[in-house]
């Protein structure tokens, strides 16, 4: 043990955790818990441990214990403390943590609760004292509310507010009064006082540390309290029934984004059509209307489960023991099966409350150096740790079947040859639940990553979140609707609103029509722009999103030019076979019975653009546009995506259209060329090409903070030409 480690250890007050045991072995002593352990060798090691371990109780510093030992045992003691610390078998008490006064009756009656806290955290008595002195208010008069009160009392809370109906001795109040009598007789009295909930406001509730809302109308009550503004230092937790599910959480506080409204918005977007009626019923109640003839009552065992769950969440929050499960998440209780699951929750950008609390993402595009996302592969060997790029759970914050931004993967039944298939379900809005597919030549993991990126790009386009711009601001030049590659010049309607963008070349602010940034949705209702999702890219980093968006936008520009000038060239299939990967894909198309064309669209700007097209099994046209800094990658992407459509028989379900109403056979090749396998460029060369051509790109960060929280950034790139700003 180093001198620095020794000095750091000497001033600590370690406590051995409750689940650590030690036993004699033939060569010394072994310390272990359920997962790991270590040994100390020596004939007297066990006897030594038995003498010193009781002194590691969090009250005495290591220095004091060491100095009380004979000199020949002092280094052995320090080695033991170091080993216990490295294996996580001790926790450190802070000075004064155990000086909080608890009565002898409290220590005896609530020994289990104090020991439970002590197992995880230091300052067990101080933390339990916080529980004893906190005031918690329970709103609700059903069986679940009764169990919440009982759970709070049994875990040490001494000051509880509840509705008068809950305290009626003729109903559930009898059990509460019995519990209070038992506590009083044990020398640990508690009180449950009546709260007037008829006029629901924070003044009526009074000063408290937490409020629990459950029972009929819990969503409506929680919404009222949310709109009124949660006071500082108060936690709000609700249990809301939605059909045959109960949504517990999220734990809400004054300035933390993510609330019940966010959870219900996510739930409505993810629910199947059969379940949407449950959400409609709930929103009807929140709006103040009623649906006659509906009475929902859960079983007593489920009420007990929910009540104890809610009480335990408050115990964890008030004692600061560990983050409650409902912090930044919801707990879903299925009433039919009694199954319980926890799902992360990210704030919804359409929640009026939380949209104001989300951190802004604008201003990050100025210094970004664009990258093209490398091909994602899983670790090649089981012993090899995947890097951050390949970490399978890096998107876990936005996944969840009930309240996730993405519901789940849906590719278990798909054949994974000749290309790998990844499919994810994304809930955009109620009734708009999409299955988005991605393909990759090498791994299912990479295909799933492509699907996640495509799905989140579709989500971002639908949300329409971007920094707004004032077209009258003289400091910000505007780019008029007619200057974009996707402009529809026949519709000279003035844009309704504007968003702020950054130019690719100069990294300066400009204002562009919002209808251009979100051309596939209602913000383009006047039809100013072609409905295209090209130029939208999602990636795990902003640099990768910018790079992919730029290349995709330039590819769309090339496609638009080829539609008008018919400068398309057919790629000779024999020359394609010179590349092993392209040869594999070309042969796979033949094996699938498809006659597949590969078209080189060229480009005035040096990006490579390739279109692959084929006829599906039922005669429908299948196609995909591939682009990249090198021709080989562009051709690989185009072939892989088209072969994937042939393989699954589901057409192009990439989330958003590359170009709506485009027919791939409208492109007539002018001639045939050999595959330009060596063609490549760089972003620096692209900048030069753009300057020579008098063109630029507008970059808009459309991802929003909810996607950024899940490790996804989304950028829209739009090509435009020079000329008058207006």
TrEMBL record:
Domain called YcaO: residue spans: 438-726
PROSITE patterns found in the cross-reference section: YCAO
Taxonomy, superkingdom: Bacteria
Record protein name field: YcaO domain-containing protein
Organism of provenance: Nostocoides jenkinsii Ben 74
Lineage summary: Bacteria, Bacillati, Actinomycetota, Actinomycetes, Micrococcales
């Amino acid at each position: 043990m180093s001198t620095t480690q020794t000095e750091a250890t000497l001033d600590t007050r370690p406590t051995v955790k409750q689940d650590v045991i030690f036993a004699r072995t033939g060569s010394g002593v072994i310390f272990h818990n359920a997962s790991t352990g270590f040994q100390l060798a020596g004939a007297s090691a066990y006897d030594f441990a038995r003498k010193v371990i009781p002194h590691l109780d969090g009250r005495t510093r290591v220095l004091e214990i060491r100095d009380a030992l004979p000199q020949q045992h002092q280094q052995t003691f320090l080695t033991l403390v170091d080993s216990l610390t490295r294996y996580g078998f001790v926790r450190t008490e802070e000075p004064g943590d155990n000086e909080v006064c608890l009565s002898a009756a409290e220590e005896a009656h609530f020994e289990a609760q104090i020991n439970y806290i002590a197992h995880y955290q230091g300052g067990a008595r101080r933390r339990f004292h916080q529980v004893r002195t906190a005031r918690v208010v329970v709103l609700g008069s059903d069986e679940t509310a009764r169990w919440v009160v009982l759970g709070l009392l049994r875990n040490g809370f001494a000051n509880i507010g509840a509705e008068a109906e809950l305290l009626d001795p003729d109903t559930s109040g009898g059990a509460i009064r019995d519990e209070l009598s038992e506590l009083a007789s044990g020398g640990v009295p508690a009180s449950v006082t009546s709260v007037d909930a008829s006029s629901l406001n924070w003044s009526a509730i009074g000063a408290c540390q937490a409020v629990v809302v459950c029972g009929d109308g819990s969503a409506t009550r929680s919404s009222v309290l949310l709109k009124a503004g949660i006071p500082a230092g108060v936690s709000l937790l609700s249990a809301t029934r939605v059909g045959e599910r109960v949504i517990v959480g999220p734990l809400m506080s004054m300035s933390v984004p993510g609330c019940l409204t966010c959870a219900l918005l996510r739930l409505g977007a993810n629910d199947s059509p059969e379940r949407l009626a449950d959400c409609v019923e709930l929103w009807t109640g929140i709006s103040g209307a009623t649906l006659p003839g509906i009475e929902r009552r859960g079983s007593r065992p489920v009420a007990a489960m929910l009540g104890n769950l809610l009480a335990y969440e408050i115990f964890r929050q008030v004692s600061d023991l560990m983050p409650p499960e409902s912090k930044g998440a919801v707990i879903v209780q299925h009433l039919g099966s009694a199954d319980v699951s926890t799902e992360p929750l990210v704030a919804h950008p359409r929640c009026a409350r939380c949209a104001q609390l989300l951190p802004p993402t604008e201003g990050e595009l100025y210094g970004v150096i664009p990258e093209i996302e490398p091909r994602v592969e899983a670790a090649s060997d089981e012993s090899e740790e995947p890097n951050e790029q390949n970490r399978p759970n890096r998107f876990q914050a936005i996944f969840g079947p009930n309240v996730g931004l993405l519901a789940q993967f849906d590719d278990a039944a798909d054949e994974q040859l000749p290309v790998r298939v990844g499919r994810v379900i994304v809930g955009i809005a109620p009734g708009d639940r999409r299955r988005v597919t991605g393909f990759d030549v090498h791994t299912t993991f990479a295909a799933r990553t492509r699907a996640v990126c495509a799905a989140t790009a579709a989500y971002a386009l639908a949300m329409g979140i971007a920094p707004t711009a004032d077209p009258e601001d003289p400091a910000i030049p505007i780019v008029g609707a007619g200057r974009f590659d996707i402009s529809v010049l026949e519709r000279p309607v003035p844009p309704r609103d504007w968003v702020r963008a950054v130019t690719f070349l100069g990294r300066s602010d400009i204002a562009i029509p919002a209808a251009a940034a979100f051309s596939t949705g209602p913000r383009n209702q006047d039809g100013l722009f072609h409905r295209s999702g090209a130029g939208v890219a999602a990636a795990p980093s902003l640099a990768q999103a910018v790079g992919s968006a730029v290349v995709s936008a330039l590819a769309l520009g090339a496609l638009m030019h080829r539609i008008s000038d018919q400068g398309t060239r057919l790629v000779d299939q024999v020359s394609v076979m010179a590349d092993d990967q392209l040869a594999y894909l070309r042969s796979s198309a033949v094996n699938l019975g498809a006659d597949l064309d590969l078209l080189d669209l060229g480009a005035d700007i040096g990006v490579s653009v390739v279109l692959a097209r084929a006829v599906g099994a039922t005669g429908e046209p299948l196609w995909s546009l591939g682009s990249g800094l090198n021709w080989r990658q562009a051709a690989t992407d185009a072939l892989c995506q088209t072969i994937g459509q042939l393989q699954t028989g589901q057409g192009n379900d990439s989330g958003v259209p590359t170009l709506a109403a485009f027919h791939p056979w409208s492109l007539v090749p002018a001639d045939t060329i050999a595959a330009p396998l060596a063609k490549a460029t760089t972003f620096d060369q692209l900048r030069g090409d753009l300057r020579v051509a008098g063109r630029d790109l507008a970059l808009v960060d459309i991802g929003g903070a909810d996607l950024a929280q899940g490790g996804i950034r989304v950028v829209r790139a739009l090509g435009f030409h020079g000329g008058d700003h207006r």
